Every structure is written in structure tokens, then in C-alpha cells.
Amino acid sequence: EKGAYPFFMLKEIDEQATVARHLIKHYFVDGIPHIDAAILKSIKQADRLYIIAAGTSYHAGLIGRRFFEKWAGIPTEVHIASEFAYDHPLISKNPFFIFISQSGETADSIQVLEFVKKAHYASLTLANVMNSTLTRDVDFALPLLAGPEIAVASTKAYTAQIITQIILAAALAGGHTDLQGQLSRLAVDMQAVIDGKDHIKALADDYLVNADRAFYIGRGADADVTLEAALKLKEISYTLVEGFAAGELKHGTISLIEHGTPVIGLISQSKTAGLTRSNLEETIARGAKTMTIATKNLASANDEIILPELTGEMEMFGPILEAIPIQLLAYYTSLGRKLDVDHPRNLAKSVTVQ
Ligand code: M6R
């Protein structure tokens, strides 16, 4: 039930810090990330991980890849299920497949699972709906614990998918001394961002409600989030939005910038923060109306959305905090256009056809 909320999407955005706490409670034992030993053993035998998913779940996989590579040291590829099903790359000698899905019923992913089973490859599904095709027909399954997600636009499942992958990567890496503490602090930060929603509503009204197109830019993990940011805004507000790596602007897309075009920059990665800022400046010079979403340690006083500080290793959690304003911007844009936020046209919650 959505109670006092006008739409399920807002309720589900609001629940994200709580979901993070549920995941911490479920997956940590005595401060150590705890994953079934059989799962860890099977993954450790692999020479490469193949993450398979669609839509928002695919975008979560892009973020997870960074943790599997950096923390667990396992080369990882992320694939769109509908592409992999008909055009897969050369597969390594000992692959391990990870399916990510909110519903567990996405036909494109099920198609790949059938291929994986035929080839006798090992597999794990991270799903929110646990009694589903993708959790039943697989070697292993882990729950995302986000609770029912009703709105077509996926929100809390996305952050739960990222956090679950982080915990799995840490467990593969042989524990992580302070991950529980870091994730607990992150949950507090997530709540702080959620509590700032009125400000984000004002920005959506100012920048997006009357715009017919918009762009999200970022680098590294922030570039991964631009894809999710664009999908969210497209799907429920029907704005033409593109999200892409900021460095690609000058290789084509900058020609689309006109007076007043909204360009939203995501900045949580210190290595590339300055470069993304320069790219934003380049669009300003062409008339863009820019909005910057930055973590506090990388922010400048004029940035429109300042997220809590994330320094050192915590920087890798940037996408989880960025998820909230990009979801809220989409929500309030859809709301500002008086659309049915929870039921965008032409879309189903679970895509059970290929
Ligand atoms: O249930 P799944 O996670 O497998 O669904 C995948 C996509 O259909 C889903 O994430 C879709 O992109 C969302 N509507 C996006 O908000």
C-alpha cells in the first residue's frame, strides 16, 4: 500500500536507506560480509564473470563490475541480456554467470540462462522476487531484499542491486575490514539526500518540466549512472534524454546544445571531477543550462545538488548517492507534467517477452 504517498515511486525512493540497512543486517555476521561458502567457492574457480541483465538491472551491473574487478580481482564483463542471447562474445574457459533482476522474470535474461544451463556454466541470480524463473533455474540465488517494487520505474531495486554486488565482491575478496561501518554511514547519507527532496523538486520544475531534451554527463562510475539517470527520466517523463561519458561530448553530441538545453553533470570521482567540470563549462559556452550534482568533497559552492562527502575508498559508493537525485528529478519531472508516474505508457513492470 502506498499510504499517504501519491505514487509508489516516491514511496520506493524513500525506502532506499531502509533497504540498505536490511541488506547490512542480512549479509553481515560479526561485522564480516557473509555469503554462502558454496557460492564463493564456485565464483573463485572462475576466470571471468559475465553479468547479464536488462534496463536498470544492467545499469546496476555496470557499477558492480567495478567492485568485482577492483576488490575481488576477477575480470568482469557486463552484457545486455537481449544482445548476449543472440550475439555473445568469446566466452572464457571457466566463466561464471551472474544474472541481476528485480522481477526474476525478464524473458531476455531467461533466454541467456537457458544457454548457460545447456553449456553447464555456473550461475548465480541476484533477484528481488525470489521465487521466480531466474532464481529457480539457476545454481545459486541471493535476495535483494528491497521489498515489493510496484512502480514501473525501478528505484530501490537498483540501489539494492549495487549494494548486494558490493557485499558479494567484498566477501570474494576475503572480507573487508570496515565495509559494514561504511555501508551503515552510507545509509545515513542516503537518508539525508532523500530528505532534501523539496530542493530537487524545485530544480526539476526549473530545469526539466518544460524541456524537450536533456543530457546527463559524467566519467567513470558517474558515466554508468548517467545511463540510469537518462533511462529514468525518459521512461516516466517522456523527455528525450541521453546519458553518456562526458569526454564523448566533443565527439558529437555537443552539436545538440542550444540556448537553455539542460545538461546535468554527475561528479563523485576525484580523478575526473575537473575534466567533467570543464565539459560542463564547454556546454555553458554554447548556451546550456547546467546543473551539477557533486559530492561535498568535490563540490563548489554554486553546485545545484551537493551530496554528502565520499572520500578515499568510499568514493566508489558515489553511484548509490547519485541514484537518489536522479530518481527524484525524474519523479518530479513526471509529476510536474501531470503524468501517471507509476504507469508510464507502453511499459510493463516485468518484460516477459523477448
Ligand atoms: O525485473 P528486471 O530487473 O529483470 O527488469 C529489467 C528491466 O525491464 C527494468 O529494469 C526496466 O528497465 C525498468 N522499468 C527501469 O526503470
From TrEMBL:
GO cellular component, one term: cytosol
Signal among keywords: no
Subcellular location: Cytoplasm
GO molecular function: carbohydrate derivative binding; glutamine-fructose-6-phosphate transaminase (isomerizing) activity
GO terms (BP aspect): fructose 6-phosphate metabolic process; protein N-linked glycosylation; UDP-N-acetylglucosamine metabolic process
Residue intervals of the SIS domain: 39-181, 204-344
Keyword Cell membrane: no
Entry keywords, A to Z: Aminotransferase, Cytoplasm, Glutamine amidotransferase, Repeat, Transferase
Catalytic activity: D-fructose 6-phosphate + L-glutamine = D-glucosamine 6-phosphate + L-glutamate
EC category: transferase
EC number: 2.6.1.16
Protein name (record): Glutamine--fructose-6-phosphate aminotransferase [isomerizing]
Upper taxonomic lineage: Bacteria, Bacillati, Bacillota, Bacilli, Lactobacillales
